Every structure is written in C-alpha cells, then in structure tokens.
Amino acid sequence: MNERLKNLITKEPSAWLEKAKWNQENRDWLEKSAKIAIKILREIRAQKEKNGMSQKKLAEILFVSPQYINKIVKGQENFSLETICKIEKVLGISLIEIPLFQVSQEFDVDLQYTGSGLSRNKAQKIASHVGDYSVYASFEYQELDKRA
C-alpha cells in the first residue's frame, strides 16, 4: 500500500455520519446563520476603510472573544437575539427583518361594521390570509371613526 495512504488511515472510527446527521437536524438555523454571517462580513468589509472595522474590533466592542466572532461569521454559531441586536447596533445594519404588524386594541362595540357588513373577525382573517394587516387596520380605524 502507498505510504501516503497508510499515513491517512487511522484506527479510530470516523464521526462523519454523526456530523452529517447533526447538520441535517440543524439545517434551518444553520442556513439562517450563514445568511446573517454574509451580511456581517459584507458590512465589516464596507466599514473597514471608514472606521477600521474588523472582526477583531467588532469582538472588542461587543466584549466577546475574536473566536466567538469567527464562529458567527462562519455561520456556525446559534447566537441569541440579544447578540444579533448588539451586532446590528454596532454595525448600523438590520440582520433580521420582522414584518410590520399592528396590534389591534379590543373595543366593547358591535362587531358588525354596518357600512360594509364586514366583521372584525372577518377583517382579521382576510388580513392574515393575504399577509396585509392594513386591511384589518383600515377596518379598526373605520370602527374608531364610527364611534367618535
């Protein structure tokens, strides 16, 4: 057998199957983490000339180790929302977008809007179905105007 090949062979079993299973089980957050990592790396690169931003400087500002930042930018860290918010603040970027929504305040009124026959429940269902809560918000404003 080739000497080079003999040097590569070990008696210890490989852990590739366990790693593959782990990657499969954690695929969702790993993909999101990788996308966040790309945004962070792009912003660090963009800010390098302006303010000397680097992974090391980011680590210093956040009071974490450079190794931790390295894990983040490799997309291998399942970090908290708190950490995400801190990174967003330091870099001045948004890493996670949350769709705008409005919280409806419940009023003790007749649920039927007499002008259109649209109930609050139905307006809410329509809004959630089309993903546009402005429909529901519009209904709520009409209800407020009606009571004023």
Q: How does this model look, in words?
A:
63% of the residues lie in helices and 3% in strands. By secondary structure, it is mostly helical. The chain folds into two domains: 15-91, 434 Repressor (Amino-terminal Domain) (Orthogonal Bundle), CATH 1.10.260; 112-147. Strands 1-2 form a two-stranded antiparallel ribbon. The longest helix has 25 residues, at 27-51. The chain is extended.
Helix/strand layout:
Layout (H helix, E strand, L loop, with lengths): L2 H6 L7 H10 L1 H25 L3 H8 L3 H8 L7 H11 L20 E2 L4 E2 H11 L3 H14 L1
Antiparallel strand pairs: 1-2
Helix pairs in contact: 4-5, 7-8
Short characterization:
This protein is mainly alpha-helical and 148 residues long. 63% of the residues lie in helices and 3% in strands. A hairpin with a 4-residue loop joins strand 1 and strand 2.
From the N-terminal CA to the C-terminal CA, the straight-line distance is: 91 Å
How much of the sequence lies in strands comes to under 5%
Uncertain segments: 105-116, 129-143
Helix content: 55-70%
Q: Can you write the helix and strand succession as a string?
A: HHHHHHEEHH
CATH arch. level architecture of the largest domain: Orthogonal Bundle
CATH topology group of the largest domain: 434 Repressor (Amino-terminal Domain)
Count of individual beta strands = 2
Radius of gyration: 26 Å
Total count of domains: 2
Main sheet attributes: strand count, strand direction, barrel closure: 2 strands, antiparallel
The average pLDDT value, as a whole number, equals: 76
Gross morphology is extended
Structural class: mainly alpha
Total DSSP helices: 8
CATH class of the largest domain: Mainly Alpha
Protein name: Helix-turn-helix motif
Pfam family, one: HTH_3
GO molecular function, one term: DNA binding
Domain HTH cro/C1-type: 44-98
